[in-house]
Amino acid sequence: ANVAQWGWLGFQGDNPCQRWSFGSASDGYTTISTVQAGGRSWTAEGDPASADTNIAIDAPTAAADQQFRFEPVGSVLLASATSPTATLGIAGCGAHHRGGVQPAYQRRSAAGCQTWTITPIAAGDRALYRVTNDVSHQQLVSTSKGVRVERSRGVGKPGSWTLRPTDNGTWTLASGTTTLTVRLLLP
Questions:
Q1: 33-40, long-range: CB within 8 Å, 24+ apart, which pairs?
Q2: Stated pTM of the model
Q3: Using an 8 Å Cβ cutoff, are 89 and 104 in contact?
Q4: Which of 3, 35, 42, 47 gives a 20 to 30 Å CA spacing to 19?
């Protein structure tokens, strides 16, 4: 069956026909399955890079045609999963900080250096991203002491992140042993 969305059906309360569950696939990719019995999965039919590729639902196989990656387009806010008025920012981000600084959740402000760009990294078959602050141009990295912003790093380094949606509207950014659960918002 083809995947289709109908606006009128979404207003039918707890109708499972248009509800999907996200699962972790290998190497940073995501599977998308219906919440209905049987858990049928989204399947790309044809060239996955083509805008004309049909998305159908089929029995789960864990094959590459059932694994997807999400790519935010443009700047985003990394809002706290528990307090949407707090977003990840860098205090004094215009200044040069040798060795990097630790970003923190702060009240949303246009002057708070809080916008980020999430860019796919060419990493073979892995779905990895670089997360860069739009003002400081420094990259979000994972360290043994948490997250920091530092100068750019290469693929597979602490600055390489996976990005996956969750079933509750949040997203996980993971690198090494660090996982941030955030809401992706438009600035």
A1: 33/60, 40/1
A2: 0.81
A3: yes
A4: 47
Backbone dihedral region for residue 137 (phi beyond 0: left; psi -120 to 50: alpha; all else: beta): left
Cα–Cα distance measured from residue 64 to residue 83, given in angstroms and rounded to the nearest whole number = 36
* Token digits of residue 118: 């999430």
Residue whose entry in the numeric block shows the structure tokens 């639902």: 57
**How far is Cα 68 from Cα 106, in angstroms, rounded to an integer?**
32
CB 61 within 8 A of CB 55: no
**Which residues, other chains included, contact 29 with Cβ-Cβ below 8 Å and sequence gap of 6+?**
67, 68, 69, 127
**Helix (H) / strand (E) containing 45:** strand 41-45
Pairing of strands 54-58, 41-45: antiparallel
Is there a contact between 23 and 40 (Cβ–Cβ < 8 Å)?
no
The strand pairing partners of 20, in sequence order, are 34
